[in-house]
Design a protein that fits this description.
- With 426 residues, this protein is α/β, with parallel strands linked by helices.
- The protein is built from 16 helices and 13 strands.
- Helix 11 (223-226) links the parallel strand 6 and strand 7.
- The radius of gyration is 22 Å and the shape is globular.
- The relative contact order is 0.17.
């Protein structure tokens, strides 16, 4: 980080060297708006918009016949879209599909792989994970008639920000059946060593799954090397496929043939699906874990935007993401530490995702003051302003202007005019 310099001219120099700068014009961004909330809801791209409009045209023109046009593309749309993530995950296309929401996919996977016995009945999680994962885990434990206080083991954080891999591995004993962890922590942006943790789980005969919601689209993964049992991810954060766009699901091919916990007619073999037999015959690959009819209009944006990300290249995206966050962290230290700000994100590239956790005792009111200045972050309890400089549409000048505005807010104490009362969505 010692190579950075103060001043807007240096930021503009970095932008001139940016090989991804051309992609910014393919996103809809407000005039004079600085959007730093792409890790919560990514900005809309023109490519995603076109995919939705194209899908509407197919529906308008072909109606029910749409399922058979383009060699059945739309009938097979979930796995077709899933396959577009092969570049980001280095997984086989038939291990990847798009369906449901993250929460329902977690339920599906636990309903499939959580088979508690008298000896192995626990699910291993961590105390910093996003609540939906924990709610799903507790629900599945209760469905088996077990006590969550006994059957759910939560790895504790030593500092309230991060989880140590050593602590996760130490908690893996002969009573654990399944483990579920986030690739990136949603508050601090800590990136876990997925390969090490997965290897340790398998050495102890534990099935392990990963939640990629805060890593997909900003961090490349190599599932050929990591070899997880299953994974889930959303498509509306770093991927920018739109609010509520359908989630992703990965099943390692070694589990093909395992009967899905939650069966539905779209999980049936395609060639016999319309025989409408009451006896379920699961598909031979990841499509076995599909349930109901695909939500085509919610899935459509994924096609355009993931093709856009693949065009840019996930390795290039990651390289710029690290450069942007390095620059932001350096500017925070140089210009904002005097106001009581603290960087809550790990500095090592191998341990950091795509956003920065800016900590301050008045973080909530400061986040409101930023929004009043057309800077869009988000806030996470108790004291974190999350700032995500999205490589596809955030410039180094944007990062510089963000810090300039924060400096001005703190100098003038303009956050004092805002209430601590929480709104519905923060």
């Amino acid at each position: 980080m010692a190579n950075f310099q103060l001043g807007i001219d240096f930021a503009r120099q970095l932008d001139q060297q940016d090989q991804l700068a051309q992609y910014k014009e393919r996103f809809y961004l407000g005039e004079n708006e600085l959007y730093f909330d792409g890790n919560s809801l990514g900005a809309c791209s023109k490519d995603a918009e076109k995919s939705v409009l194209d899908m509407l045209e197919v529906w308008k023109k072909d109606k029910i016949l749409m399922w058979n046009v383009e060699d059945g593309k739309y009938f097979k749309f979930p796995q077709y879209l899933g396959g577009l993530f092969s570049q980001m995950l280095k997984a086989d296309a038939n291990e990847l599909t798009i369906t449901n929401s993250v929460t329902i996919n977690i339920h599906q996977l636990l309903a499939t792989f959580y088979r508690p016995t008298k000896q192995r009945y626990k699910i291993l999680v961590d105390e910093l994970n996003f609540p939906t994962d924990i709610h799903a885990v507790v629900s599945q434990v209760l469905l088996h008639g077990l006590d969550p206080t006994e059957a759910v083991v939560s790895v504790r954080s030593r500092d309230g920000r991060n989880i140590e891999e050593d602590d996760i591995i130490a908690a893996m004993d002969e009573t654990v059946a399944v483990a579920l962890f986030p690739a990136v922590m949603y508050r601090s942006a800590q990136l876990l060593d997925m390969a090490r943790i997965t290897r340790a789980a398998h050495e102890k005969n534990i099935l392990i799954g990963w939640d990629l919601c805060h890593s997909i689209g900003s961090v490349p993964h190599d599932f050929k090397q990591i070899e997880p049992d299953f994974a889930v991810w959303c498509t509306y954060k770093h991927i920018s496929a739109g609010p509520g766009s359908n989630a992703g699901l990965y099943i390692n091919k070694r589990h093909f043939g395992t009967r899905p916990g939650l069966a539905g007619w779209h999980g049936n073999r395609k060639e016999t699906q319309f025989l409408l037999d009451h006896e379920h015959t699961p598909a031979p690959d990841v499509d076995a874990w599909l349930t109901g009819t695909p939500n085509m209009l919610s899935m459509a944006p994924i096609e355009g935007v993931v093709k856009l990300y693949n065009e840019a290249g996930i390795d290039n995206i990651r390289e710029k993401s690290l450069r942007l966050t390095d620059y932001l962290i350096w500017l925070i230290e140089q210009r904002l530490s005097r106001y009581g700000f603290n960087n809550g994100t790990l500095l090592e590239h191998s341990r950091r995702g795509g956003h920065v956790a800016l900590e301050h005792e008045d973080a909530f009111r400061i986040s409101l003051a930023l929004k009043a200045r057309q800077v869009i972050p988000d806030f996470r309890e108790p004291n974190v302003i999350r700032l995500a400089p999205a490589p596809m549409y955030t410039s180094f000048e944007d990062v510089y202007r963000l810090v300039e505005i924060l400096d001005d807010i703190m100098q003038k104490k303009s956050y004092d005019q805002f209430s601590e009362e929480r709104s519905l969505v923060v």
